[in-house]
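Hi there,

I know you've been waiting on this one. I reran it after we fixed the sequence typo, so this is the corrected version. Both the input and the resulting structure follow.
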Amino acid sequence: MGAPIPELASLIPLIKGKVGLVFTDESVFELKHKIEANKIQSSAKLGAIAPIDIIIPPGSTGLDPSQIGFFHALQISTKIDKGMIAITKDYQVCTAGKKMGSSEVALLQKMNMRPFMYGMEVISCYDEGTVLEKTVLSINADSIVNRFQTGVRNVVAISLQTGIPTSVSIPHNISNAFKNLAAIGLQINYNFAQISGAGSSSAPAAKAPEAKKEAAKPAAKAPEPKVE
């Protein structure tokens, strides 16, 4: 089997109860969603812990009136509608975190309801001697990138404010310095290659006064018609 691997001892406390091992070389962040998305519906079982609150809304039950005594025993408000038992208001069958009783299980079976979803849950990940907890595995790649970018922006802000150059702030220092040089060059009409043509868009405006003078000239009179 090869030499002993002492790092595997960190798995011993995790292998308890209904736990399985998945061996993979894929990204655990992508595989976690695939595993947990695979769920199946299941009926309620006596003594099982309800994972969610179950509420039956008002409406027809599809059961004949001969079974109305069962609903009365559970103190469920009902009426007969079109030859069927109908519930008149919301009825909470069970509460999340509590055990299912025999009456709750029987009611859900009569209503043909399979309200529970069961599947596997990734609780941890072992990678080269390190165990990653469930909270870490819930972080996706996008959120990691966003957190890293936030950290970089904070470092840039601190570097610019304190005047201490860093590898992430130097591009901003160069950009700010160029903006200052460009502003000075445009202000004192000193032209250099990087700003050549920056003020060309304003050149046509210089001809505006001439155009105004031309418009101010009186229009030429039309020739008078010749009298026969």
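Quick highlight: Residues 201-209 have pLDDT under 50 and may be disordered.

Best,
R. S.
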